Amino acid sequence: MFKGFGQLNTGRRILRPLIMCLLGSMMLYAGELGQNQPARIVLKTTSGPVEGSQIDKLQVFRGIPYAAPPVSARRWRPPVPPTPWSEIRSAHEFGPACPQVAEPGSTEPLPSMSEDCLTINVWTPHADSGLRPVMVFIHGGAFMEGSTREKPYDGTLLAARGGIVVVTPQYRVGAFGFLELSDIAGKEFTQSGDLGILDQIAALRWVQQNILAFGGNPKNVTILGESAGAVSVGTLLAAREARGLFHKAIMESPRAPYGHTQARATQIARQLMKLAGVSTFSELKALSTDQIMAAQNKLFYARFEDTSFSPVLDGVVIPEPTQRKIIQGHGANVPLIIGTNLEELNFWEYEEGLPLDKIPPSVLEKQLQPLLGTKACAAINLYTKGHPDRTQGEGIVTLLGDLTFRMPSIRIAESNSIRQPTWMYLFTYHAKYGAEHAAELPFVFGVSDEANITGTEQQLAKLTSQMQLAWINFAREGDPNHSGLPFWPKYDLNSRATMEFGLTSEVINDPNVNERKAWAGVPFDGITPDIDQASGLMTLAGGGKYWTW
């Protein structure tokens, strides 16, 4: 954790007297538990009473079920409300992570996991009638991994600094959240390829029904997410079922494509079944969690092009490509912050040792021609030879980062800015691998990743303050500007004002303009570039390795 970042006073554990505050169905009390133990806080939710903790200046509730366990007959089914309970339920610990497998080559131990994982966490300054802004963060992990248990997603410092309510829901990932089964199991499983998105919508409904009891304002909800979480935010912007459940949105490094076609998703499902040694849905359904995860693990290594699970264009939950719907103005028109990091893919180049310097430019040109036609060669030269300080590999990584992250985000900003206030940022602070993917998260949450963060304590504190207050002000007022940040104009097609968050945060008009212009005419609308083209480029860059973000 960053020192001097306005941390909570950890020595202060003042036990409070009995408090009664009637607010709808809410009940609150603080119990005397002893000098070294936090006070207990009990609230009534729509499903039943839960007990959290008074920790320093915050009241914290973890692992609250927002949906029934998606197990047994409910496996691969849309979420439904949990069965109500009458006894006080402990909300002191995070719920188990949704089933997932480790990234290839990862040495990190997997968290405690269960299919019964649809839980939500809340950090609030006080469960009263404060009507505080609410921020709902959706974690990333390529729709295959991740959980709210992870340190970078701790809402303590963000909630304390902003006096806001921070909420983090878990959603089904991988084969349990995005397995397209409609052609395999029948029409009743039409939504199976988008269960993770339906989980997020169910969590937002829970927020609408319960957040008032936690001191939050259900009419002032901001959704935000990073990577797959940002793709989720974009998907929710376009989802009819999510309308009215949130009022502002922040997208940090959404990667493209946003989803799979139904045909491709079905192909991935059949590949997983083959690797699991089953041929029918009945056989698949009879498998244990571990057996399904073992098959998914094999899928990672099968060199099946783009093995990522993703939201599925199923015609029901997602009836048309998300990006096209937003770009055409058919999504939710809400204020938006969107941005990317300068060197999104640096981690994969440096950590994985990808042989990008050895790829002949002619091979890359062949991959780019379906997108850029005769301009492909000029674009490659711009990225690789137009910057003397770059190696060929660094130029290709930058090109692929623009293809996968930056340009799709610019297209969203271009279209959304015509209708609603939109702000764009570019994160340039150099961590261990440069301004890589997810490098902004420690600054948003104020939680340090010691392995990747560099810089002096003063530099870290300043950038954290600037980003946190920008996000907090946006959640409060729908405008990120605050006294510690240079004035951040709205994005428009003339100036293309972009806030550069770095050692010296400043507004730059149309950064990297030549690279942006190289992609003129490519709509990045969820249709062009198509999924196969994007997958081919990523497979090329990875030297046949599996990539995730």
Give structural notes.
By secondary structure, the chain is α/β, with parallel strands linked by helices. It has a domain at 95-361 and 405-520: Rossmann fold. The chain has helices at 156-162, 174-177, 182-185, 195-210, 228-238, 262-276, 281-286, 289-301, 322-327, 346-352, 361-372, 376-384, 392-419, 441-445, 457-477, 513-518, 531-541, and strands at residues 30-31, 39-44, 49-55, 58-65, 89-90, 119-124, 132-138, 165-169, 216-226, 248-252, 260-261, 312-313, 336-341, 422-427, 497-501, 506-509. Strands 1, 2, 3, 4, 5, 6, 7, 8, 9, 10, 13, 14, 15 and 16 form a 14-stranded mixed sheet that branches. It has a two-stranded parallel sheet with strand order 11-12. β7 (132-138), α1 (156-162) and β8 form a beta-alpha-beta unit. The longest helix has 28 residues, at 392-419. The two termini are 24 Å apart. Residues 1-35 and 543-549 have low confidence and may be disordered.
Structural class: alpha/beta
The CATH architecture classification of one domain is 3-Layer(aba) Sandwich
Q: How far is the N terminus from the C terminus?
A: 24 Å
Shape descriptor: globular
Percent helix range = 25-40%
Number of strands: 16
Described by strand count, sense and barrel closure, the largest sheet is: 14 strands, mixed
What is the CATH C-level name of one domain?
Alpha Beta
- Multimerization status: single chain
Average pLDDT figure: 87
Low-confidence stretches: 1-35, 543-549
Rg value: 23 Å
Number of DSSP helices? 17
Assigned CATH superfamily of one domain: Alpha/Beta hydrolase fold, catalytic domain
Named CATH topology of one domain: Rossmann fold
- Strand content bin: 15-25%
